[in-house]
């Protein structure tokens, strides 16, 4: 008996390992297109459901999809209604695993494992990625076959004794309510422990294939499994903002409502069984196929039932967990998105862009206190020290986030993009550091009531304006992959450096001709040099951002 239990446990381990390997392989193949998929989210609720189902079919885990959705909402990439639509789609997408394992295709196990191993030796990365998928597919069915064969060896009376309190065989055409609730709770608790509804459903199908469980009890266990899998999103939302928590609550509520409505149909007696089971029997197939079909029918049924009520569910969740503050705090560097590197990289560029905006505002303010030393600019000057500390903190956060991302399983392109973003982050931080030097020079000019010569004044304003254009171009380059913005930034760079060279030469000439006092001239040249240094950092950001986008796959550009 102990040997059989160990074999079942080993089969489950192989099954979960195969599912994870297949999921990782498919994720790697499709991961580069995640940005393109993300664009669909905002279309409408139908597109959201389709996208959620597609993504879940790819990554083979509704839990992973719902956690990803929580991350998207927490990062401000989705609103509540869109997130609910995606979660509904995930419920449909997860049924593909049950449909796969319900097939009796043991003949494909060894060929899949052999083919997967052979593909892993091919040096081309695109082909090698498929090796994980094929190997995982083979291990998935090997684990299923191992569990089924081991369960067949166990005396059927053992399961009859174990399930006697929640056996859901119909009596007078109806399922006993107590047994139904018991089976649902068992399925829910088992999934909470395993943290995978697909794995739990796989065990139930294996029990059905070995003849150790009837379809009625198996389907009730599957319904409980659907409720149990929502705990993963609830756990992920614990540290997220309130909108993400509302989405997790909506996910749990929708599943509970769907299960409740379906269970009510079990109370409608049929000839030999409730109407729902009559439908499953009509669809045909052996016990594993009936379990898989029931899983699919339930999820499609509940999604179609609740689809028109997504706005109502959103409002209900907003009432249950209202946002305390008028402004929701979004987490731009969302840790749950680290498992989706393309999205994590997009989030990093977004945070980097915000960091650059703040750094430029500091530089701009430091220049403006010479051009227009009014109370508004002085109030900004008083905040510069605090703003510089914020820039340093943002650099630390982005660096830490990218360090965590580097520990994930990345494609070669993704791995090459991370150093570029790290260099950009350092350049932005150094731009912030120049604020103190520029402020010291401009404040000295104001304190000593020193003004530049009329020609120098004009040059300084032109240099400041062109540097402003370059900073704006750099912010635009970081916003999206736009070759025109990159080309425009390069033109501004060339114009600015030519202006700097010309301004330095002309100012030295004015000093030599006695048109400008040396002590004033030196301060002017120091400001010009600071403009040059800031421009160099902006040039680095533009160049590296261009290289970053060059490494994107064509589908994501």
Task: Please characterize this protein's 3D structure.
With 557 residues, the chain is mainly alpha-helical. The protein is 78% helix and 0% strand. The protein is built from 24 helices and no strands. It starts with a helix and ends in a 7-residue tail after the last helix. The model has no long low-confidence stretch (mean pLDDT 82).
Rg over CA atoms, rounded to whole Å, is 31 Å
Total helix count? 24
Sum up the overall morphology in one term.
elongated
Average pLDDT value? 82
Output the structural class: mainly alpha
pLDDT below 50 for ≥5 consecutive residues: which ranges?
Answer: none
How large is the share of residues in beta strands? under 5%
In which range does the helix fraction lie?
over 70%
Major sheet, described briefly? none
Distance between the termini: 57 Å
Secondary structure elements and pairings:
Elements: H1 2-31, H2 34-40, H3 45-59, H4 62-74, H5 80-93, H6 95-101, H7 109-120, H8 125-152, H9 156-162, H10 177-194, H11 197-209, H12 215-228, H13 231-236, H14 242-265, H15 275-283, H16 287-306, H17 310-320, H18 341-371, H19 375-381, H20 384-406, H21 412-447, H22 454-479, H23 483-512, H24 518-550
């Amino acid at each position: 008996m102990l040997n059989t239990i160990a074999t079942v446990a080993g089969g489950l381990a192989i099954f979960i390992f195969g599912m994870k390997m297949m999921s990782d392989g498919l994720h790697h193949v499709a991961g580069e297109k995640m940005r393109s998929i993300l664009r669909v989210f905002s279309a409408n609720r139908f597109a959201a459901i389709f996208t959620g189902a597609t993504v879940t079919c790819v990554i083979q885990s509704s839990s992973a999809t719902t956690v990803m959705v929580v991350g998207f909402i927490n990062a401000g990439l989705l609103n509540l209604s869109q997130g609910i639509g995606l979660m509904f789609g995930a419920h449909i997408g997860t049924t593909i695993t049950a449909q796969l394992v319900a097939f009796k295709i043991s003949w494909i196990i060894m060929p899949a494992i052999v083919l997967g191993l052979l593909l892993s030796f091919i040096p081309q990365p695109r082909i090698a990625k498929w090796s994980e998928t094929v190997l995982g597919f083979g291990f998935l069915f090997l684990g299923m076959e191992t569990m089924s064969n081991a369960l067949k060896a166990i005396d059927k009376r053992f399961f009859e004794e174990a399930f006697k309190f929640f056996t859901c065989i119909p009596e007078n055409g109806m399922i006993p309510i107590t047994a139904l609730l018991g089976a649902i709770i068992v399925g829910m608790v088992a999934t909470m422990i395993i943290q995978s509804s697909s794995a739990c459903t796989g065990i139930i199908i294996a029990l059905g294939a070995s003849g150790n469980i009837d379809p009625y009890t198996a389907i009730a266990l599957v319904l409980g499994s659907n409720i149990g899998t929502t705990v993963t999103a609830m756990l992920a939302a614990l540290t997220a903002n309130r909108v993400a928590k509302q989405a997790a609550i909506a996910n749990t509520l929708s599943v509970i409502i769907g299960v409740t409505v379906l269970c009510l149909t079990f109370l409608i007696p049929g000839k030999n069984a409730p109407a729902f089971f009559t439908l499953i029997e009509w669809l045909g197939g052996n016990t594993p196929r009936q379990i898989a079909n029931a899983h699919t029918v339930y999820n499609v049924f509940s999604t179609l039932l609740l689809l028109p009520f997504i706005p109502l569910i959103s409002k209900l969740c907003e009432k249950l967990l209202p946002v305390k503050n008028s402004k929701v705090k979004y987490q731009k560097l969302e840790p749950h998105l680290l498992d989706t590197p393309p999205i994590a990289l997009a989030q990093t560029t977004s945070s980097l862009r915000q960091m650059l905006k703040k750094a430029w505002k500091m530089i701009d303010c430091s220049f403006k206190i010479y051009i227009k030393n009014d109370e508004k600019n002085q109030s900004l000057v008083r905040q510069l020290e605090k703003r510089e500390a914020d820039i340093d903190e943002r650099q630390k956060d982005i660096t830490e986030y990218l360090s965590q991302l580097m520990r994930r399983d990345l494609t070669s392109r993704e791995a090459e993009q991370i150093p570029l973003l790290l260099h950009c982050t350092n350049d932005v931080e150094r731009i912030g550091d120049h604020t103190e030097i520029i402020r010291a020079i401009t404040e000295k000019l104001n304190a000593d009531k020193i003004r530049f010569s009329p020609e120098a004044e004009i040059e300084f304003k032109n240099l400041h304006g062109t540097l402003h254009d370059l900073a704006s171009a750099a912010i635009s380059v970081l916003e999206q992959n736009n070759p025109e913005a990159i080309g425009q930034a390069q033109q501004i760079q060339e114009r600015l450096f030519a202006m700097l060279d010309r301004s330095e030469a002309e100012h030295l000439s004015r000093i030599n001709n006695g048109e400008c006092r040396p002590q004033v001239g030196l301060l002017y040249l120091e400001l010009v040099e600071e403009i040059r240094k800031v421009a160099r950092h902006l040039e680095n950001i533009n160049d590296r951002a261009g290289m970053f986008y060059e490494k994107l796959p064509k589908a994501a550009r």
